[in-house]
Design a protein that fits this description.
The complex is a heterodimer of chains A (268) and B (263). Chain A is 31% helix and 22% strand. With 268 residues, chain A is an alpha/beta fold. Chain A folds into two domains: 111 residues, Pyruvate kinase, C-terminal domain (Pyruvate Kinase, Chain: A, domain 1, 3-Layer(aba) Sandwich); 150 residues, 3-Layer(aba) Sandwich (YojJ-like (1), CATH 3.40.1700. Chain A is elongated and about 70 Å long. In chain A, 40% of the residues are buried. In chain B, 70% of the residues lie in helices and 11% in strands. Chain B has nine helices and five strands, in the order ααααααααββββαβ. In chain B, strands 4-3-2-1-5 form a five-stranded antiparallel β-sheet. In chain B, helix 6 packs antiparallel against helix 7. The longest helix of chain B is centred in the middle third of the chain and has 38 residues. The interface between A and B is medium-sized, with 16 and 16 residues.
Chain lengths: 268, 263
Amino acid sequence: MSELGDLLDDIVSDVDGTLLFSPSGSLYERFAEVDDPVVVSKTNSVGADRYVGLPLEFGDVRERVRFGVEGALENGFVEEGQQLACAIALFSEDLDTVTRVRAGDFERSGVYDLFVNSRAQPEVIQNVLEVAIELGKKGQKGKRVGALFVVGDAGKVMNKSRPLSYNPFEKSHVHVGDPIVDVMLKEFSRLDGAFVISDSGKIVSAYRYLEPAAEGVDIPKGLGARHMAAGAITKDTNAVAVVLSESDGLVRAFSGGEILLELDPEEY
Amino acid sequence: MYPLVVRGWYGGLSAPERNLLTALVVLFLGITVGAIAALLVRRLLLALDVDDAVEGTSFERTARQLDGSTVQFLSRLVGAFVFFLAGLYAIRTIGLVPEEALIEEIGAFLPQLFVAIVVVLVGLVVGDKAEIVVSERLRSVKLPEVAVVGTLLKLSILYVASLVALSQLGVATAALLILLAAYTFGVFFLAGLAFKDLLASAAAGVYLLMTEPYAIGDEVEIDGHRGVVQEIDVFVTCIEDDGEEYVVPNRKVLREGAMRIRG
């Protein structure tokens, strides 16, 4: 077994920092005594000083590590080029995997920026993503549906779009994250057009036909008009767009005309 | 058959002996009824989830240190009160204390003392609990000074409780009452003064949200600020214009009116 121990030693030898993903309280205490680990989890239950909040339980471990590292870089907890050991739970509830990454090794995807530095509040984007994932998982009456949510900068988005029909959310005060919203959005997703959501999470409108300037928007070939509209509106305004694809069932998040995040609803 | 024998035996006793017997029976009854009352109160308090409610208060913690709990303490107090009443009655029957008037006075005073003690206890527990609940609610407000609100609330409750208790005992509380009135007036007056703008904005905000004279995305001019409406909530309306964002309190919208620009 000493070879295995050596291998582990090799992996964690001369690392500059530690990232603990959702550690238990006692484990964090043990680490906190020797060095100052960065905690990445959904809630800061261990009360760590250096903490990166996960907006979603990313099913893909690479996404989770990427988000944690980008968050740590953004907050100045680690520096570009540092060697980091990440302890993460892959199969079980507890930490069972240790992996080594170099901060800044992968291209900065801006996933962290998407949540933290967008106009809209992080919880709102998180809620919209959850609604989209939910919708992608269950569909509408068992059939796959597509949907487009434009989050934040609602005033500008409304000015760059026109109604396809009467707005069902007029004079209503529904916010994403309200329990009734899941059902409502599921029903309204049958209709064409985009949902517009304000910075604070109020659902401003459904049935919007987006009319942004689409020059210079480059999205992967094969994606349809819905993704094109999402890319264009995020380039033209400061909004973030969350798209549920009808054809491949993936959830994609756009900001500044680029795809920043791609999630498979089935993994959540 | 049996009651007749007892009555005959009782009739044969001398007057002091009869009194002693009655006193003993009353004392015994007092113990029994006291225990039952304590048990019932305990059951009642547990059924009302009082033990969960008082969790974490400093009174409960003190009780825990003395190997008890708030519920136990309260139920024992009730039991002791019943027992004391019985004891008093027993003493009167025997005629141990010569002064009848003294016993009368104690008999009248005891319930008041009991109520006073209970009021103080409830005040202590409720004050503590209120402090805990309020400070938990305010925890999301990341401002250390906000903890003073909870303490203030706790002290207010304790103050009122001790006022009630003292007046139960017949202590002159007029001065304290005047202080209370001044305090209440101060709190309401200051709060009214402090929240005047917020309340006015909220009243206007409710109207704006209900009728939606302008919606998100409309171009409006309010109080000289022109731009696109980004957000309307109960207190403020956010208008944005080319990188400048105005946060306009809703009371201004009603007072000065808003101009909607048709595109």
